[in-house]
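My current task is to audit a protein record that another person submitted. What it holds is a sequence and that sequence's fold in token form. Thanks in advance; the entry in question is below.
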Amino acid sequence: MSHFKVLTSADIKSLVARREGEIKLGETVQTVQSAGWKEELQQSPARFVLVGIPEDIGVKANFGIGGTHSLWEPALKAILNVQQTDRIQGGELLALGAFDFADWMENCEGKGVGELRQVVAAIDDEVFPVIEAIVTCGKIPIVIGGGHNNAYPILKGVSRAKEEAVNCVNLDAHSDYRAMEGRHSGNGFRYAKAAGFLRRYMEIGLHENYNGAAVIKDLTGDPDIHFYSYEDIFLHEHIDYKTVLGKSSAFVNGYATGIELDMDCITNVLSSAATPCGVSPLQARQYVSHFARFSDAAYLHLTEGAVRLEDGRENLLTPKLAAYLVTDFIKGIPLSQTFFTENAV
């Protein structure tokens, strides 16, 4: 039985704070009417489809702290309460639904990483068909929540829909290119590359302290992978951030490109691997906006963020940041879906 549950118009209505004289995105956002949503989606004029993957099994399978399941619902509410303007219309977005892995997360309590990694593989098998169906309908998925393990099924779904490997950019402190030792949040891109779903991989902002020598060797040994470290950009200033964005869009130029953003790379954003020394929220927004405008964006994936972690830490601002990033992405995609190259360096 599928764990994917569609959002109803009543679900959306309950999350929108209406105010006289204003229109919120949630008042005009589209929904589907039934579990047989694929035909409805095909007919919808919406360009973007919002999907939640609220789970933390992938993070725990990588020895991380649980809590990444907590972002989806608050982020959805924040997005739905953004003001509608000439720059962004709710009708451009279809709030499709989310996966409900609560039973699997409960059953995973106290399990070892070996068992958890088997469950992550099962999550993969549930996620990729939904993404594939969305992209087959000509839509752009916007995926929120869960661990970075979900990059693999998203890339798989997009690749299968487009019948070719796709490129990917990732703003992240970690490469998530660890060994294929069983599925978890730290090796999604390695699995995608090995399976032929990922063509070129560009990683921006790697932290030297948290990427092992073996992984760096693998990254540098593959001509279809390139990275810029956080230290080279922001500490030593060997290259400026704007130039990095331009060179990165040139690297992925020519193929559909997934836009990944691990929220643990943003300073003081709550996540299993939160950092006191990362990119700023503004730089994260610039990243999303740039690749929405200057790449053939296939999807946006906001991952690893949390409102509440298992160790008791909380940050109620994470959903609002997610809403900024989502709306920056929607505003940045050209209406014609033209593939821009003039900003490449």
Notes: The two ends are 48 Å apart (CA to CA).
